[in-house]
Structure formats: C-alpha cells, structure tokens
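Data availability excerpt. The first of two example chains:
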Amino acid sequence: MVRLITHNLLACHVKNCTVNNFPLEFKNVQLEIREAEFNPDFIRGFLPKLEWKALVDTARQLGDTSLPTEQPEMIDDEFLQNLHHVLLEIHVEEGSMICNNCKHEYPISSGIPNMLLAEHEIA
C-alpha cells in the first residue's frame, strides 16, 4: 500500500539518477482514507525518521494541510493525531509517482507501487 509513511522513504533508483530524486511526485492519484488504530508511541518514535519538508509538501499536494510547515518542538495529542492521519490513513490507490530528476514513472495499481526497473535502468 502506498501510504505517506512509505512514500517518505522512497527515492528513484534508476541508474545514475542520484540528485533531486526524492521525494517522488504523485500524479493522477486516487486516494482512499482508511481509519487506522492510533498509536501515539509509534508515531512519536517514527518522527525522527521522517523527511519533514518532503512529508508536508506531499501531504499538501494531496490536499491535506493539517501539518505545520516546521516540525514543532512541543509534541501534543492534536499534532500526533494529525501526523497519524497523514502517515497511516491516507492511501494512494491508483496513479503514479514520478522522479523530478529523470522523470521515470512508477505506476500504482490497487494500492501497490511497481518499483521494478527495466534492465537498462538498473545500476
């Protein structure tokens, strides 16, 4: 499933595509919101692993403006709930992810991204 928690870890891996290859940009997506059990300890623990600007920009691209531009120093329940929603409840069901550098397109079908490359694209 393509959720923003996963998307925040993905970069283009086409041979010689090593700059401006993160984050992948969503294109022509169909979203589905699915409730997930809230676990504040998990969200708090995952926070240091996030590329914050990429997450906020992507969430806004998908229509969610609940996260602040800068990661707050004081973490409250409302912030954790909003972050939980963005990371775990927004599902990209269809569409594609495109590299800003080489323009390679990774299709998404039934919530599953196809990250496979053709032989000539592999490093």
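And the second chain:
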Amino acid sequence: MERGLMPDTKMYKEMIGAYIQVGMMEKAMEIYCSIKESWCKPDRLTFIILIRNLEKVGDAEMVEALKEECFQFVDYPDKFIQEVEQRYKHAKRR
C-alpha cells in the first residue's frame, strides 16, 4: 500500500460533484464506478446527486440502471427511490 490518504465515500462524492459542476457527467460516472471497485460503497447522497443530474441531462437509461444498483447499496431501496422521485418532481416544478 502506498503512503497517503485512503479515499472514502465523501472524497468520491466531492469528485463527482466537481465533475458535474463543469459538465463532465461521463467522468462523474467513472468516479462512481471507482467507488464500487474500492472498499467504499456509494451512499444515499451519491445516488441522489447522480440520479438528479442524469435526469437533467436526459439519460433515462442510466437513471434506471442506478435505481437498480440502489438495491445493492441502500437500505430500503424501494422507499429511497420513491423519496428521490418525489423530491425531484417537487423541485422540478419550482
């Protein structure tokens, strides 16, 4: 193991957010894949950030894939997905 900081879920989320802010959704998804390959796991906020931003760019196929992956990483995934959909619909109307 090399010396230095071990990445954690928070660091990965920060990187995802930074790539999204500069319009690099593909790179954000690469970081998401890195989370899954590491000892970390994506958390609820990671999924919210990715799902909402993929919906904004119109990538419905990837949104559905992420919703399916929630079942591997999130407690009560059905309820979580409903909450995300409700919040996004509410925010979209504003």
